[in-house]
Design a protein that fits this description.
Elements lengths: L8 E5 L5 H10 L2 H8 L8 H8 L6 E8 L5 E9 L5 E8 L8 H15 L4 E7 L3 H9 L3 E4 L6 E7 L2
Parallel strand pairs: 4-5
Antiparallel strand pairs: 1-2, 2-3, 3-4, 5-7, 6-7
Length: 163
């Protein structure tokens, strides 16, 4: 995938052997980006959180890694987690701070949307911290509609109807 900046990224599904790559990736994202991705402050993302991201069935749950082809470094990741009836999929995207604003998140949202359509999902949602203005704006540009999350004024749910 070629992103807006012109950089070429290789995107592929994760394997269990990629856990160290994800661990290193999340060590390189900013504290704020880790908080936005996991909705709680964390200095380090370890095995307890990474295992469910890499030990997956590749249908109801899928994680993708985006690599900078020039350096081989992971610069972004995206996850799709579907409910049991395959009606709704929750998405989560993270991009390394030095790659933000270059189109990586935009491209990864396209990858996730295509996978959601392929699975026949009716909708996809993202739960965002209200302070995560960049993600909220990106998702709105991609056709997601924001909704208040009842009971939690710090979060917003963004929803995109696929069918």
């Amino acid at each position: 995938m070629t992103v807006r900046s012109g950089a070429v990224l290789a995107v592929r599904p994760v394997t269990p052997e990629d856990e160290p790559l994800l661990e290193e990736f999340f060590d390189r994202v900013s504290d704020e980006d880790r908080r936005f991705r996991f909705l709680s402050p964390r200095k380090h993302i370890g095995h307890d959180i990474l295992a469910p991201m890499v030990e997956i069935d590749h249908f109801r749950t899928e994680t993708w890694l985006a690599f900078d082809e020039a350096s081989g470094q992971v610069v972004g990741t995206a996850m799709l987690a579907c409910d049991n009836p395959l009606d709704t999929g929750e998405i989560a995207v993270s991009v390394c701070k030095n790659w933000r604003g270059k189109g990586v998140g935009w491209g990864l949202l396209d990858v996730v949307a295509e996978a959601a359509r392929h699975r026949g999902l009716r909708r996809v949602i993202a739960i965002e911290d209200r302070e995560n203005h960049a993600a909220i704006e990106l998702e709105r540009e991609k056709g997601f509609a924001p909704h208040a999350l009842e009971g939690d004024p710090t979060l917003v749910m963004l929803e995109k109807i696929l069918r």
